[in-house]
Design brief:
Blueprint: H1 2-15, E1 23-29, H2 31-34, H3 44-54, E2 59-65, H4 71-82, E3 88-92, H5 95-100, H6 104-120, E4 125-128, H7 138-155, E5 158-160, H8 165-172, H9 190-213
Parallel strand pairs: 1-2, 1-3, 3-4, 4-5
Length: about 220
């Protein structure tokens, strides 16, 4: 009788669904990711964490944002970022390349290097782009804005076209987006970050789905 009870219990345990473990999502970027000029709870990473948790995702978002970082800086630290074995990766770099007028061909090569390293490590990746003004000419603007998509497509990563989409939406509507920005007109304020997360959130959910499909966190 005891053996039958043990066998029945074992069968129930084997039949029970295995609970997925918590995913780790690393957000690698510059001051936009790091949360420059904001209270700690107002930055991109904590707000994204809150948004994902409210949507029922079992995930921990790691802040790997470094103020002032460029795509070259991201490439130089991608190996030790991946050494922490994240289940998924957001790459949001390029703003400082734009401010410094760095050749988009060089920035694209750096992004490709980051995406290549992540792909080789089996880490699903989302590359977030940025818009470019026409200050450096139409060719620079075109090459800068397409380098994010090109790097993503080359390495099978997801591509989110514009990290600052809510600001772009306001501008396209002929409105001022100053109310979503800090006084430097470069970094979003707390409301701007909240809108950025709401706009970008579904793409991040797609990234987490890829991580789950790849068997991460299980």
């Amino acid at each position: 009788m005891r053996k039958r009870i043990w066998a029945l219990g074992a069968a129930v345990l084997l039949a029970a669904p295995v609970q997925a473990e918590t995913l780790t999502l690393t957000a690698m970027g510059d001051s936009l990711t790091q949360g420059y000029g904001l209270q700690q709870h107002e930055g991109f990473v904590p707000v994204l964490q809150e948004w994902l948790t409210a949507r029922g995702h079992d995930v921990v978002v790691i802040n790997a944002g470094v103020s002032g970082d460029t795509t070259a800086g991201g490439l130089s630290r991608i190996d030790w970022t991946l050494a922490d074995a994240p289940d998924a990766l957001i790459v949001a770099l390029g703003g400082n390349d734009l401010l410094r007028g760095i050749d988009p061909a060089a920035s694209r090569a750096n992004l490709d290097g980051v995406a290549k390293a992540a792909a080789e490590a089996g880490v699903p990746t989302l590359i977030a782009g940025l818009p470019a003004p026409g200050n450096y000419g139409a060719e620079f603007q075109r090459d800068f804005e397409t380098m994010f998509r090109d790097a993503a497509e080359a390495r099978g990563a997801l591509h989110y076209p514009n990290f600052l989409q809510p600001m772009q939406d306001k501008q396209d509507a002929g409105q001022s987006f100053a109310d979503l920005m800090q006084n430097d007109r470069i970094h979003p304020n707390a409301e701007g970050v909240r809108l950025i997360v709401e706009a970008m959130g579904p793409a991040v959910e797609d990234l987490l789905a890829r991580a789950r499909e790849a068997g991460a966190g299980g």
